[in-house]
Amino acid sequence: MQYAAEYILPLKWNGAGPVTELAHYLRDLVRWIDVTVVDGSDEPSFDRHSRAFPPEVRHLRPDPDLVRRGGNGKVHGVLTGLAAARHELVVIADDDVRYRRPELQWVLELLEESDLVRPQNYFARLPWHARWDTGRTLLNRAFSSDYPGTLGVRRSTLLAAGGYCADALFENLELIRTVKAAGGVEARADDLFVARLPCSSRHFARQRVRQAYDSFAQPGRLAVELGLLPAVLLARPAPRHLALAGLAVVAVAEVGRRRRGGRHVFGPTAALWAPAWLLERAVCSWLAVASRARGGVRYAGGRMLLAAHPERYLRAQLEQRGVGGVVPAGATSPPAAPTRGPSGK
């Protein structure tokens, strides 16, 4: 049985890419949901993808009008797919996200009473850099929610808002804030775990400053991250004090690991990597400041200055256009936080 929903996958792979593995994933996916791949790859790669993908996959080029405006290529792909979607309920996912049917069903069930669903990603395989980045995930979970590479969204809510800004580097946060600014209801599904594949270690290294730059969209967080390195350099703590601080970071990460069933997907040693990630962020935050002084962080051969708009700014813009107060179909109040999957497990 297919769900009455659309799966949108923005893609840009120039040259060699793991197209065979992705094609196998899509062969399963098209049995459950309509799939649209919006592919901004070069012509040889686009043709290779077309031959590899199942015939049931709708394979599109990004809207050229969007591309000419510049900005974030992933947003171009999402907005193109959203305009072409055949259903109200939409799942947006990066090319490394791998849903199974139960998680997909759960997202769609939550979308019945909300405008946005925010699952939790975890790495299906754990090379060293995936373990390192899991430290970030656990710290995010300890204080709030993580930012996944997949979201569920109601098409009408996002289209009513006029889409979301393609000049934002932190595009998922921009999408989340746009939906909320339009009056949409967000369901944070911190115990809905969706697998993702780790990138190469080389790609991971290239992303360090760019990911630190995302914190410009969260000034309080940025202030803390920028304060870490000066605090250590000025205090010059003794080794035992550094060790105690590291243990405290591990303890906080362990809270995130245990929260909302996280132990089912995050291993018992996952929290031990959190101090390494925090040290990296303490350094890369200052490199991100230097990037901003040069006009923004490097992206796709250029620079992007904006991380994401504040929600109050987006709300004011939408109010000027008469957009807001969206009420999701069938909802009378914000949905309760999910505690069980569709099977009751």
Strand content of the residues, in percent? 15-25%
Helix content: 40-55%
Find the CATH superfamily of the largest domain.
Answer: Spore Coat Polysaccharide Biosynthesis Protein SpsA, Chain A
Mean pLDDT over the residues: 92
What is the chain-wise order of helices and strands? EHEHEHHEEHEHEHHEHHHHHEEH
Main sheet properties: 8 strands, mixed
Shape call: globular
CATH topology grouping of the largest domain: Spore Coat Polysaccharide Biosynthesis Protein SpsA, Chain A
Q: Give the N-to-C terminal Cα separation.
A: 21 Å
Supply the number of structural domains: 2
Report the radius of gyration as a whole number of Å. Answer: 20 Å
Broad structural category: alpha/beta
Task: Report the uncertain regions.
Answer: 326-345
CATH C-level category of the largest domain: Alpha Beta
Strand order of the biggest β-sheet:
3-2-1-4-7-6-8-5
| Beta strands, count | 10
CATH architectural name of the largest domain: Alpha-Beta Complex
Q: Please report the number of helical segments.
A: 14
Keywords: Glycosyltransferase, Membrane, Transferase, Transmembrane, Transmembrane helix
Subcellular location: Membrane
Membrane topology: Multi-pass membrane protein
Pfam family, one: Glyco_transf_21
How would you sum up this structure, described in words?
- The protein is of the alpha/beta class and 345 residues long.
- The chain has two domains: 189 residues, Spore Coat Polysaccharide Biosynthesis Protein SpsA, Chain A (Alpha-Beta Complex), CATH 3.90.550.10; 103 residues, no CATH class.
- The protein is built from 14 helices and ten strands.
- It has an eight-stranded mixed sheet, with helices on both faces. A two-stranded antiparallel ribbon has the order 9-10.
- A hairpin with a 2-residue loop joins strand 9 and strand 10.
- Helix 6 crosses helix 12, helix 6 packs across helix 13 and helix 11 crosses helix 13.
- The radius of gyration is 20 Å and the shape is globular.
- The relative contact order is 0.14.
